[in-house]
Design brief:
single chain; mainly alpha; Lysin; 2 domains; three-stranded mixed beta sheet; 17 helices; globular; disordered C terminus; Zinicin_2; CHP03883_F420-assoc; Coenzyme F420 biosynthesis-associated protein; Zinicin_2_N
Length: about 375
């Protein structure tokens, strides 16, 4: 249903080359990023009080094509079993084709590759949650990856101290690795939500055409300067509910990463204030075409995740301390909803100040908002 080889080849063919760096500087950057990723581990653990349950070596340093290959492998691990299942079901019951089969595996591969080529020029690093299974069972279940050309390009563009900037980036990405390696259930929870999102994606031909028309209208609206994105167009009501859960956990993770990198920063990154100020201006100062693409792909929503998530973490830590904040990592039931992220007191009342947690209803892995009670027993309700 997706031609993965086409996705890789398309992405590599379309991705723009990185900055011009001589061989000696490139080797120095790679060596320093590996070193600083290890340094960041200690700072993150000490500050957060979280202890990983699996070994964490230096980050893997890649170029832009390497990032594309790694992400296609991650997509395969998560999506291929579900895509195969959907394909088999359709062959067996002769129902209408899904979106991916309607456009064809090669076309879908081209689309995925094109999106990855765009992202590959912008991503500084990531914690890869989903790797192919290790036959020996000795390799870590995830992998921290840093994209050296993008880090070098950004530090030059911002005109900031290279070592400070590299450590600052490592602090954010190492926080993500710590989140998932110290919380055994979190990876499985995210994977389950993603698979449920995929299984809820089936539409018939008529509905598919309606969504294509809506996609065209969304593009026109964004070009005119309005709101909207393609992600929302291709969502059913069921998918929207699942995506809300995914958005909540990723907003928490991204905001926690931003909070930690800035909180630890003043002690170990002397120019952190300058870096943050210039980096934020860079986020906001994209050209018109870039802004349109970012909005259509939903990347502006990701920027909002950083802001809302960091505000949630900052408020909770200020009110109840780091130890009680870390209760977010205890179970799916202690994760905040998006409503609680936007109103942290609701989460504090439900998790930190409540006598005991409500029992999660079966099927969604998280307490339904309507079943969550505040400090006085009142339902927090829906947004």
């Amino acid at each position: 249903m997706i031609d993965w080889d086409v996705a890789v080849n398309t992405g590599i063919r379309l991705v723009r080359p990185g900055p011009q760096v001589d061989l000696a500087d490139a080797r120095q950057a790679v060596a320093q990023l590996r070193e600083l990723s290890v340094t960041a581990q200690g700072h993150v653990r000490e500050f957060t009080g979280m202890q990983p349950l699996e070994p964490a070596g230096p980050a893997v340093i890649v170029d832009r094509p390497g990032w594309i290959k790694a992400n296609v492998e991650g997509f395969r691990v998560v999506l291929e079993p579900m895509l195969d299942r959907l394909g088999a079901e359709k062959l067996g019951n002769n129902t209408a084709t899904s979106i991916t089969s309607a456009v064809g595996s090669r076309v879908t591969g081209v689309q995925l590759g094109a999106v990855l080529s765009y992202l590959a020029g912008r991503v500084l690093g990531q914690y890869e949650l989903f790797l192919p299974p290790d036959p020996d069972g000795t390799a870590p279940t995830g992998r921290l990856t840093l994209v050296a050309p993008n880090i070098v390009h950004t530090e030059r563009e911002l005109d900031v101290d290279p070592r400070d900037f590299r450590l600052w980036v490592c602090l954010h990405e190492e926080t993500h690795r710590t989140q998932f390696t110290s919380t055994p259930w979190l990876r499985e929870y995210v994977q389950k939500q993603m698979q449920e999102l995929l299984l809820a994606s089936n539409v018939d031909a008529a509905e598919f055409l309606d969504r294509l028309r809506a996609a065209g209208e969304a593009v026109a609206e964004v070009v005119r300067g309005g709101e909207g994105n393609l992600i929302e167009v291709f969502q059913s009501e069921e998918q929207s509910e699942i995506l809300d859960r995914i958005t909540a956990v990723m907003t928490l993770a991204e905001g926690h990463g931003d909070y930690v990198m800035d909180a630890v920063g003043p002690e170990v990154v002397p120019s952190v204030a300058r870096i943050r100020r210039r980096f934020q201006r860079r986020r906001e100062g994209a050209n018109r075409i870039d802004k349109i693409i970012r909005q259509l792909l939903g990347l502006d929503l990701k920027m909002k995740q950083y802001e809302e998530g960091a505000a949630f973490v900052r408020t909770v830590v200020t009110q109840v301390g780091m130890a009680d904040f870390n209760r977010v990592w205890e179970s799916p039931e202690t994760l905040p909803t998006m409503k609680e992220i936007r109103a942290p007191e609701l989460w504090i009342n439900r998790v930190v100040r409540a006598g005991e947690l409500p029992v999660a209803p079966e099927g969604n892995g998280q307490v339904a908002p309507s079943e969550r009670s505040g400090e006085n027993g009142e339902s927090t309700g829906e947004e």
